[in-house]
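Q: For a teaching handout, I want to show students what a protein-ligand complex looks like in token form. Below are the inputs, and the small molecule is P-hydroxybenzoic acid. Please produce the holo structure.
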Amino acid sequence: MSIKHLLETITVGGTVLKNRIFMAPLTRSRASQPGDVPAALNCLYYTQRAGAGLIITEATQISRQGQGYAWTPGIYTDAQQAGWQQVVDSVHTAGGKIALQLWHVGRISHSLHQENGAAPVAPSAIAAKNSYSFVVLPDGKPSNEPAELPRALETAELPGIVADYAAAACRAKAVGFDFVEVHSANGYLLNQFLDINANQRTDAYGGSMENRARLTLEVVDAVVAELGSQKVGVRLSPNGVFNDMTPEASTEMALYLAAEFQKRGLAYLHIAEPDWAGGLALTQDFRKALRASFKGTLVFCGGYTAEKAEALLADGIADAVAFGRPYIANPDLAERFAKAAPLNTPDANTFYGGAEKGYTDYPFMA
Ligand code: PHB
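A: Here is the structure, written as tokens, with P-hydroxybenzoic acid included.
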């Protein structure tokens, strides 16, 4: 079948992208140590994938407090910034475009990641059930440990969190990222504030939908102040249950936020659909309602094939579709789609950690 819509260029916030096949953000846990610094191996990985219309980087912590998994990269030290500079320059030289995903995990963390062994932070002191933080234990063994009981952030601490996002956005701008994506999905800090159960606050950041959305919008506004709205996207995961999120009220929240993002003229809205992470599938009516609320670039992600993605674009519901696991195994995924070439199969054993194997050694088309 033809995938002509997927192969069309698209202008996102004034930036021309060569196609509508985006690379989804993917945790790969291969930042160089110590210091969680992107290095030559990560540079090669992203550069191999420069055929995507837009690469969205793996989730990248904005602060030490925001880290929940060992070996994920940060964007809060000079060394990390310099590492990302190599990545961005190399992707640009290869003709690609790249967005940095800004991440604070909130309660999906562990005291082993925190300064002085402190408790992780969250909207409320409620542990996430069936949720894990990846740590290196004191004896050197890597381990998935249950996310610990967090402490509730004081109201007076929230401006500091917003400032950490702004500082990370400022570094992203200095590096020359084409966009910054605010991660407000998948049960991490901003999503915890949106959630009706994880957030039991009684201040201006809890209770009503508007209050639960406040921190996400303050972060968006702070990032926009650094970069301009045309360089900012947001990721949401309505109906998602990963990391102990509550589906109830989450689609209403997404529609409210979509309208707020529209008011701000954001470049794009990126919807992580329930897929690998579980949850009830989105309805086509809900996707259409998002389309009606947000006129910027609308991106869906989660288990799409080229055919399903093309249909969503042809129906005018999406502007682009992001692909995760297919991009792990196929550095030239867009080129393969264009030629209807067969795809390599991803190997789940090498998704996280390690080196070249399962990261930069998947073959290109012959
Ligand atoms: C993960 O590392 O498991 C992870 C990170 C970011 C997401 C989802 C999962 O949005």
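A: Two things your students might notice: Residues 99 and 162 are 19 Å apart (CA to CA). The chain is about 30% helix and 15% strand.
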